[in-house]
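Example 3.2
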Amino acid sequence: MLILITNDDGINAEGIKSLAGELGKDFHLEVVAPDQERSASSHSITLNRDLSVSEPKPHWRAITGTSADCVNLAVNKLLPQKPDLVVSGINRGANLGCDVFYSGTVAGAREAAILGIPAFAVSVDVHAGNPADYQPAAEFARKFAHYLLDRKLNHRLIFNLNFPGIPREKIKGARFTRQGIRIYSTRVLERNDHSGNKCYSLNGAVLGGHKIEDSDIVAIEQGYISISPLGLDFTDYDTLNQLKEFDPETLLKK
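Structure, written as tokens:
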């Protein structure tokens, strides 16, 4: 079995090293990750410039692009064969609720699903200024890799795994969860550059989340590992069914 590992924290991040160290006990690995941090790069693909590849050590490649770039390039060009599984992480910081739309970590797994490969993303909820212990998440990721490979699941979905940022012995267990709703505080900072032109930077913080009992956010708050299946189909079927009562042809009439 061949597993492709990527992330968005960069190839030198501690999380990806812990993940590779644990998965390498049971699987053949290829690591293809960004050459530097690409957090919050979402599912961007590089189309307007060339991507460079370096190999700091055997079976480890650094790409001058995003997580999605790494998976696409690895599967379509760099690897000797199509991987059986793609694992993205371990991310420093949780990817809960609406975070999944911004996260490069989740995007790495999503790109694999688009290419028809089973995948999951792994993140650890790390609070500012605190050290991160990636080992429990890495060990669980190895078990979850076996779980996915032993089952013929729909490849047009990914799993988003999140670990609470608490000591191993305080983790209460694991739950299958739904995507929750994060609450953010957003700040736009304005300043003048060296030429006197105004420029802006987006900033802010997570304030919490809606208290949806079976959500990933609540699971993490209560000390559980969250496992959320995420689909590639964004269609809101309830709304679509309601719209079927309306004839869209009437929109074309004067």
